[in-house]
Amino acid sequence: EVRLWATAWLADAVALAAVFVAGFLAPPPWTGRLWLTIYVACKTAYAFLLVAGARNHLQPGTELRLKRRHIVAVLAVWSVAIGFFSPRIAHSQMAQSLMVGGIVTYGAVWVLRHPRRPRSRWLGWALLVEGLVFLHYVPFLAPLVWNGGRSSPHLRVSSFIDAGAELLLALAIL
Is residue 128 over pLDDT 70? Predict the structure, then answer.
């Protein structure tokens, strides 16, 4: 689980770096889509690896039923579809919030139902917080997707909420 979690945090760091590169360097449109695709791939891998690490932690030696090449193929198709084919950034954000929130929330429920020790519930609760943080963005993104409305002020401070949830999760993993 340590390798899975370390890889998850590395994927998260790459995802955040992609956001900074795309946001601060103001690249041409096609390279902006490329950075978005990298973000989607890495953030989705982060969620999947967190849950896989939690499962391995609670049931040591558990092998994943999916082969690595299948996971990479799904990540590639998902990332390209969201990164290059979503009409607006709000569509990408909503799809990504649903995907990552769904993966992590599912993992949280699984951990809470199958704790290795009572202390393992901390990991489940931290995963639940992380999953719900992603899912709570959906109502704020819905007006942007459906009618092109204005961005909510809540979305402007979302990085602070994300950082707090990720810090809680990092502490639970430790």
Answer: yes
